[in-house]
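One chain is below:
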Amino acid sequence: MKIGAYDFITKPITLDSINVVMDRYVKYQQLLDETNYWRSESNRDYDFRNIIGESASMQQVFETIKMIAASKATVLIKGESGTGKELIARAIHYNSDRSHQPFIKNNCAALPEGLIESELFGHEKGAFTGALRNTKGRFELADLGTLLLDEISEMNPTLQAKLLRVLQEEEFEKIGSSETVSIDVRIIATTNRDLKEKIKENLFREDLYYRLNVVPIFIPPLRERKEDITFLVGHFIEKYNKANKKNIKNLTPQAIEVLMAHDWPGNVRELENTIQRAVVISKDPVLDIEHLTLTESRHTSAEEITVVHKNKKLEDIERETILSVLKAHNGNRKTTAEILGINERTLRNKLNQYREKGYYKD
């Protein structure tokens, strides 16, 4: 017991005594798991104000979160892979009255078709081969909290009908049971597909779509909000500096130009991976083009950037870079100077030159 045993059983050993100890241990372990879960969750900050995005489109997303977080309204989050749909879902939950209740996730695309019904609704012991004990499904685990149905477009039509009934009646039966289980769960669904096209192909129920689409939220791809890139880069540098005990300060103007020219097919996830790799491999305090590894896109290399600017002078490229970073940071000169790796005096002198030539206005 002193070195870690949970309990002991004295002889003569009976099956009942083993069952009593094991039942007690299972309940203890469940309580311990829940405690560890909430302790880890409490260290995270899902305040939507800390989600990076200064663009008008992302500000609209934040306004929507503020308006609907406290309600129980079902939310459908749409957007390409890597745009941060789950992060938005968590922000909705953790800014709601349900924030101290469970946030349960179910990836509809990750489970085999034969298992997803059991995962969602649970099953009774003996309900099918391999059902060795009574098991709660995600709906029951999320009671009083939030259930995220990730990639809802991948759910098969038969299960869609059962899901529709749960959304309407707020009750269901476990597999192998006739007992009705009532639940109070907020549903948030995500998709990277066009559900209206799926409806036309008879792959998604129209009535379920309208039941889920009570509050639609669209997360724009990164290529449509490039003004957020410098903010995101600063956030990821700070994050991976801490994780890797590095002290990366900023990026060169040329590196920023490459990032701004890239199409980002993998969206914010791709940008994060790019900065993580750069921080890990860099031996310098400033990230340059050589540290960036990008997927194939419209512009992916220093040579291609040179082609894009082949008719421009170096001073024109420098001016455009400085003014784009300044604009992305709402005219904040201190932040702009830090990102560009120059001092504020140099930046001020550059801006004075641009103002005299009519390129810049305060």
About this structure: The CA atoms of residues 282 and 291 lie 6 Å apart. The chain is about 50% helix and 10% strand. Strands lie at 75-78, 103-107, 146-150, 171-173, 180-182, 186-191, 215-218, 250-251, 286-287.
